Amino acid sequence: MEKINKLKEIFKREKIDGYIIPKNDKFFSEYILDHNDRLNFITNFSGSYGLALMLKKKNYLFVDGRYTLQANNQSGKSFEIVTMPNKMPEDILNGKKLSIGFDPYLFTKKSLDLFFGKSECVYKPLKKNLIDEIWKRKIKKNKSKFFILPDKFVSEKYQSKINKISNYLKKKKSDYLFITASENNAWLLNIRGYDTKYTPIPYSYILINKNKSIKFFCDLKKISLPFKKHFRKIEFLDIKICSRILSEVKKKKIIIDKNSCSYFFENIIRKDNKILDYNDPIYFLKAIKGKKEIQNIKKAHIHDGVALTKYLFWVKKNFNKKNITEISASQKLFEFRKKSKNFKFLSFPTISGTGPNGAIIHYKATKETNRKLKKEDIYLVDSGGQYEFGTTDVTRTISLKNSSKRIKDIFTRVLKGHIAVADFKLKKNTTGSIIDNSARKYLKQIGLNYAHGTGHGVGYFLNVHEGPHAISKKNNINFQEGMIVSNEPGYYEKDKFGIRIENLIFVKKKKNKICFENLTMAPIEKDLILRESLNRNEKKWINNYHKIVFKNLIKYMNKIEGLELQKACSPI
Q: Which of 148, 220, 304, 364 is deepest in the core (most CB within 10 A)?
């Protein structure tokens, strides 16, 4: 409580009644560095999404359905946990006329409207971040340079991409696009960096005009001479002067993305210019992978599949002989992945949950929660890697001994939903909201459901979660050739178990039609399948899938592993 009290002592000086703290950093990165995790510092909540509302006499932590259990465990003593969208911050503040302070670099105007739009409170941008005033942070300086992706890993030259943006601006009668999402800058210029965890992005902003003139704002120490020479027509500027340069632009039409352009920058631009109501076009362009990228991603999934499959065999063989815990198991999986010379680092923190911990959707094992793998439990592992030619994300749920018929029934229903997505007959106007219903169908037959989307877009050696497309109840983006998405229905029973089956799939053209094709290469747990509950087409699907897995992985297995793979991939 000491840090909470220290924070509230500052309220009087700033003349505010409350303060809001988001999860994100000023670049709105998917995963942030520890010294930027202000939400974790003040709440002890370690999940990837949340918002704290600190009032003089009460504290609230808002999360979505993935994190309700985790938030209660980590922050429930000092915060009231509120699940969005069932209840929003504006509902808590309804009828109140308070002054609420915030850091204008950490919110967009759109996010403020989303969370607080209906409230009558006054929202006050502050010059200093109040958490930073009370937090003695250890800031680790990252000296790694930005780098250029080799031509063999990209489908399109950066000059061609710049031409597309220029044409887009002319079509929309816009003078400028201000790109604030670092991953979009990475895509545009075919570059990467190591400025944050799990995602190879270069922290940066780009101001590009319709005539292809580019100002690139970053930490100039990250730019090598060869890098600079490669982009001779690009002006590299210190990120600290970005606001000044923007303030010098006047009487222009400018596109910003309201999901990633901070309140601070939007205010500067809006003052003397007209903001056009369009999103950053790169989000959509980036979602469609070219042929070369798809070819490379397939290779990444074979490398990843080898590591995961060997790991699953190891778990099954050793859990009863060795003292294997959730933490030691995830470390072992990391060791298997590291054996690939093309592996760079994990694409997100590994979820290694056995028994009741598997029911926490985005569980992260700690010393306090770390459980031993036991034969009476089922084990869920959700993990992925960043390879120099692709990003992976895969979940497997395995039986450590003999599971109950009820667990097998639920697992089979999750599998049937997974197959329904993988085998979905796509049309030109097929959206994620349509597909989502198919994934949930078999669970709903017995009154069950899950509190997360069925699938998210995935980047190319970039963000493991990428839009704008997704398989979810409200996503209305049409699926197009080259899009990658996860397929991950599940079910979670509080304090008992969790089940999820996740593959990555991509949209391919086949005989003038589009369909999904699997990327992930790892056996699905047959010991948890009720074979009699699958129809002929479903049995055919899983047999064909396992046939492909076996064909791609067998040459990487030793003799014993080969026999295990043959068994795991045999027809049902």
A: 304
